[in-house]
Amino acid sequence: MTAMLEVRALSQRYRLPRQRLLQPAPHVQALDDVSFSLHAGRSLGVVGESGSGKSTLARLVMALERPSAGQVLFEGRDLHALAADELRAARAQFQMVFQDPVASLDPRRSVLQTVAEPLALLRGKAHVASAARRRELAAEALDAVGLHAGDLARYPHEFSGGQRQRIAIARALITRPKLIVADEPVSALDVSVQAQVLNLLQDLQAAFGLSYLFISHDLAVVDHLCDEVLVLQRGRIVERGSPEALFSAPQHPYTRQLLQAVPGMSTNLAAQSRPHAARLSPDPTEPHR
Prior knowledge:
The chain contains 10 helices and 10 strands. By secondary structure, it is α/β, with parallel strands linked by helices.
């Protein structure tokens, strides 16, 4: 079966500021020969410490920057080889949810403006041409994440952190993408609210057949949500496999080090993550609206 997303020998090298006038500028290798595939309806977790290359990988998969080498193929097309208008149209099929729902939502824009913004990717499509239709689609997206159509006129500061992340997820969902790249989407939230958002992501995957590329430093969160896990160290994949295999019998010293750095992991979120159909207990103070 052909993979929906295929990453081939992806590398990214950044030039650092010159330290001395007559010396060449130093470089840092953020990603080094990373390859993997993701099939439709599946979830792939990417874990590693800060600086391991996780967020760089997310940006390259989203075609937000060009790699130094390698390819990102979405449904067989190399995203970094597409013309600007082709890439713009393709973006409707893959969307991103960012770490901080406060920073990712413009406080000057209403929920309607925020959630409907990605519909610009469908420019020229008759079914999103009218303001009434865009409002209808935004209301549907809010409903899918547990908010109300009446919230469309409100602004981000009127919502809690968990509700803001729901708005961000609704924005990603409105074009009905096949892939969502989630870069630390719950790390800025309280643990109990994290559980509610993770349950929501699972529900949306079941309802819409979504695939997730889930970037996280939290092994318990990845264990709960993902079918397969990649472990990144200094820009390279050092281990990969199912959560069950990696977290019960890690083979690489770095993976073992990551697990040892999570005290009480078995009694935290991961304790509730087997089997994958299990759900985490939501926070009663964070209303599922």
